Amino acid sequence: MQSTNVRVFVNILDENDNSPVFNKPVYRVATSENITTGEPVVRVTAADPDQGSNSDIAFSLEDGEGHFAINKTSGEQILGVPNFYDSLCCNMAVT
After folding, report:
1. How many whole angstroms separate alpha carbon 73 and alpha carbon 57?
2. Where do the domains of the chain lie?
3. Along the chain (95 residues), what's the average pLDDT of each consecutive run of 10 residues?
4. 42 in helix, strand or coil?
5. Domain spanning 14-95: which superfamily?
6. Can you tell me the distance from the alpha carbon of 10 to that of 58, in angstroms, rounded to the nearest whole number?
């Protein structure tokens, strides 16, 4: 039986070890009651200090009950179904 030893060097360029962080801790938006469906109401922004594709951010809504939609790449939140009888609150998730 023969064997050989080889020394291997691994250079890790970046590890997906940083979580994205919103640029503001809370986004508060007030709109007029005549806003139309599909109209942008706010653009949320976040940053991820990782490099390359590890820094790509996708936005999504955890809730909103159909009242809002979000562009997963730009963070622009748009009005879905207006209902101004209630105060609406949505939680955002960043992945």
Report:
1. 7
2. 14-95
3. 76 76 82 79 87 86 73 81 60 57
4. strand
5. Cadherins (2.60.40.60)
6. 30
